[in-house]
Amino acid sequence: MSNSRELALASKAWPFEEARRVLKRYEKAPPEKGYVLFETGYGPSGLPHIGTFGEVARTTMIRRAFHEISDIPTRLICFSDDLDGMRKVPGNVPNQEMLREHLQKPLTSVPDPFGTHESFGHHNNAMLRRFLDTFGFEYEFYSATEFYKSGQFDEILLRAAERYDDIMKIMLKSLREERQQTYSIFLPIHPETGRVLYVPMKEVNAKDGTITFDDEDGREWTLPVTGGNVKLQWKPDFGARWAALGVDFEMYGKDHSTNTPIYDGICRVLGVPAPEHFTYELFLDENGQKISKSSGNGVSIDEWLTYASSESLAYFMYQKPKTAKRMYFDVIPKAVDEYHQQLRAYPTQDLAAQLNNPVWHIHGGDVPASTLIVPFGMLLNLASVSGAEDKEALWGFIRRYAPEASAESHPDLDQAAGFAVRYFNDFVKPTRVYRAPTEVEREALVELRAQLAAYDGPVEDEALQSIVYAVGRDRFDPLRAWFGALYEVLLGASQGPRFGGFIALYGIPETIALIDKALAGELV
């Protein structure tokens, strides 16, 4: 066994822990189907949101970890529940009135409110695939509509009809009494209206593979359970899909966790072992509310990518998946800088530490070098004080600070400079508040100005940080009050960069001019 595999088998990084659980399923014999199947599910009732991406990213991390510890081939299926009836009109899409006319129809039978695809389901599937493709995920896309209509699901649907009573027994235990009276695992799709019907069954005929029911107008119908005439309610659908495909691993949010025994029980009743699971905590918006794709709160996929790289988003997804995390615009700069700190650390680490580093899991072991020689947070402050309208304005300062740097040699830095200007103008500029210095702070700023004016040493971070530190040390206890004053008085922010590094980047004459403006009351 290679050293890399031994270390991976011992690694405490959560993707390796999950991969080892999947591998344990096949410690006695390899899978008969010839591969291990990972699956992620997607409900395309609204626009894809960041949690959807997180599920695929995290499953991919586990799949990569699995490849490190086993030679069994793997597949990843991204399954869209696009045959579900549209229960309500999402609040963040156009043509709401038109959509209301199509309530309860499968999402792939609802016209696209954006007018770009053959249905609303196709539109949302395309958005999901576009993003996953942009990120470079390796996956196979499955549509529930095609899965049901093509006959791929027929064998399991016929088995569900045979074992209807056993599956109903599992379901009825989880339902309130009034729901039990009308509940059926089968939802017919009305042959005339095309709507998904929630009606009780008059008969389930296992021999013929049919169901008989009355529609809302009291008319009796008999339909085959095969061929896309009928779909399963969502909880039975979960377990039946696992059985049909032979799924080995699926993760889902904490809001699904109480249903796990139901999904597993149905999969087993249908004659197939249940997969391994991983339950992750939900994302919250800045108010602590669950991010929801129908209400469109929190940060969307496209919004994150407007202000930062997809790798920084993957880094955010890697961190503590079992802890609820607030996910709003303020977390973006921190995620960018921490991701690059890990990239810089990676080449200095031994193999065991590398396997525990988030960037190994983000890049599947093929980890690039970071060229972000100026932290994103620093670029934001630079955009703030310079009033930069485009990234070229920031490059004027960067070239002086690091003459060897260019957009070609430092692509991370060039990309981050553009993101920083955009982020500053959209989020920082409208909310920044400068304040006037107190007497002690004014005195310290005058002294800092004098020391900078007299300084003739190298324009380097550490030397300039020593000056800032010395000026504050004699006047402030705790010293962080001095740095807080610099951020609030000079940058209009509550926190900021190492100030010596900021002076080196912005320039000594420019920093002196900034202090003069603050002392003259021109920033407030």
Overview of this structure, please?
The chain is of the alpha/beta class. Among the domains are: 221 residues, HUPs (Rossmann fold), CATH 3.40.50; 53 residues; 81 residues, Arc Repressor Mutant, subunit A (Orthogonal Bundle), CATH 1.10.10. It is built from 24 helices and twelve strands. A hairpin with a 4-residue loop joins strand 5 and strand 6. Helix 10 crosses helix 11. The termini are far apart. The mean pLDDT is 93. Pfam families: tRNA-synt_1f (PF01921).
Task: Itemize the secondary structure elements and their pairings.
Layout (H helix, E strand, L loop, with lengths): L2 H8 L3 H11 L11 E7 L7 H20 L4 E7 L15 H5 L19 H16 L4 E4 H6 L4 H9 L1 H9 L4 H6 L3 E3 L12 E5 L4 E5 L5 E5 L5 E3 L1 H12 L3 E5 L6 H10 L6 E5 L2 E2 L16 H7 L2 H9 L6 E2 L4 H15 L5 H6 L1 H6 L12 H11 L4 H11 L9 H18 L10 H16 L6 H13 L6 H12 L7 H8 L1 H12 L5
Parallel strand pairs: 1-2, 1-9, 2-3, 9-10, 11-12
Antiparallel strand pairs: 4-8, 5-6, 6-7
